[in-house]
Design goal:
Elements (H helix, E strand, L loop, with lengths): L9 H23 L5 H8 L3 H9 L2 H17 L2 H21 L3 H29 L5 H29 L4 H20 L13 H9 L2 H32 L3 H8 L3 H18 L2 H20 L2 H29 L6 H29 L2 H21 L1 H14 L2 H8 L1
Length: 414
């Protein structure tokens, strides 16, 4: 049967979307919540730059391992059950981070958070996509991605400010409370789902079929590059700002928050741009702007220069995700939507796992300029490559947008 949200009344549908948006906001906040606390963790544990990078990456490793099975589970057992389980595990992992007293325990606790985040993020985005009218999927996902972008930048702000005003444990306990509150709301509002019709194609052949096209491959590559750059910046920038400008954790957190408004505003606009004009244009623009912003982090002086650079970074990252997420969604049939977001989560988590490790290693063997320069060059080359391939991808995207409602009609006839 089709997604239960199709038959919901508009108010109930909006409530379901709000739950999905809330879940991805919590999950994305977890990514960077710990970033401004790295100098304090370094002092408390004596861990070096490489070990701190591993502590950030520990969150993403279980996401990479479990995303595909959890994507299949979202298609088989439904969005509700997976979302509730994920939120509960996120809450447990957050408590474990709060009570951790060594770098090893912290890594394990971050891994628990990653398991819960994988489950809730996949099911939440699938819920949002389920409710999107034909021809408006990019805009609907853009709203969720705006919340994701805001959470990614609000997480460091929340971590830095509450840790300085209250305690190291405070930001993680706050996230635990938010996850449990959303869990209760989800149990009350999300409808129970009956038996679902899933694809008979095994996961690996289905993934190869959907990602070997130009659209699917470019969507995955853009997502990987964006996640890798985010993980790297969240390690390099706090340590660089602390060493170069002697900034406190709250100041670092507030600087990361500088791009929240730009990020959240551009995500739905970028999704709408892709719905109407094709995903390629926001994708190329996002790659180029993100590359420029990372270079700006290295060259713009002082606190004001860093704030400008992070604002530009938020705009570029937002456009990259607003193009690549619906691109990958549309590469899969509707009844494999959970699997699509499992692939998305796997690609994103892989990039986010590599980014912090790469950032820590580049700082250890070189300096911040090297750590900023490498991803900037890679993203610029990506923008150039996508521009060269633009004509063929434009044709494929046009066909995808015109036919995106077909799988829904076929399922109704099935």
């Amino acid at each position: 049967m089709g997604p239960p949200t199709r038959d919901s009344s508009p108010p109930r549908r909006r409530a379901i979307v709000a739950i999905g948006v809330g879940a991805v906001t919590i999950d994305s906040a977890l990514l960077g919540l710990i970033a401004p606390l790295l100098p304090e963790i370094e002092a408390r544990t004596g861990a070096g730059d490489a070990a701190l990078g591993l502590a950030l990456a520990a969150y993403a490793v279980p996401i990479a391992v479990l995303s595909l099975p959890l994507g299949r589970a979202a298609d088989a057992v439904g969005r509700r059950a997976l979302l509730v389980a994920g939120l509960l595990i996120v809450a447990i992992g957050s408590v474990l981070v709060a009570i951790s007293d060594s770098i090893g325990i912290l890594m394990a606790a971050r891994a628990v958070q990653g398991v819960g985040s994988a489950a809730s993020w996949i099911s939440a985005l699938a819920l949002v996509s389920d409710t999107a009218p034909p021809g408006h999927r990019g805009e609907a996902l853009g709203v969720a991605l705006g919340a994701t972008s805001a959470g990614s930048i609000a997480g460091p702000a929340l971590g830095g400010v509450t840790a300085q005003l209250l305690s190291f444990e405070a930001p993680f306990l706050i996230l635990c409370g938010l996850a449990l509150a959303l869990l209760v709301v989800a149990l009350a509002i999300l409808p129970h789902e009956g038996a679902r019709t899933t694809s008979a194609v095994p996961a690996l052949p289905a993934i190869i079929r959907s990602t070997r096209s130009g659209v699917g491959a470019w969507a995955a590559a853009i997502m990987f590059g964006g996640a890798c750059s985010l993980g790297l910046v969240e390690v390099v920038a706090p340590l660089d700002l602390n060493a170069r400008l002697d900034l406190s954790s709250s100041a670092i957190g507030l600087l990361f928050a500088a791009s929240i408004a730009v990020d959240a505003a551009l995500s739905p606009l970028g999704g709408r741009w892709g719905d109407r004009r094709g995903r390629r244009r926001p994708a190329v623009t996002g790659l180029a702007v993100t590359a420029a912003s990372i270079l700006a982090l290295a060259v713009l002086p002082g606190v004001s220069g860093t704030a400008v650079a992070l604002g530009i970074y938020g705009a570029g990252f937002s456009l990259m995700m607003a193009a690549s997420v619906p691109w990958l969604d549309e590469a899969f049939p509707g009844r494999e939507r959970g699997l699509a977001y499992g692939v998305l989560n796997l690609v994103y988590a892989s990039g986010y796992a590599i980014g912090p490790i790469l950032g820590g290693l580049l700082l250890a063997v070189g300096n911040a300029d090297l750590a900023y320069g490498l991803p900037a060059v890679a993203l610029a080359l990506g923008a150039l490559g996508l521009t060269i391939r633009s004509r063929g991808l434009a044709a494929m995207t046009h066909v995808t947008r015109k036919s995106e409602a077909t799988p829904e009609r076929e399922r109704c006839r099935g």
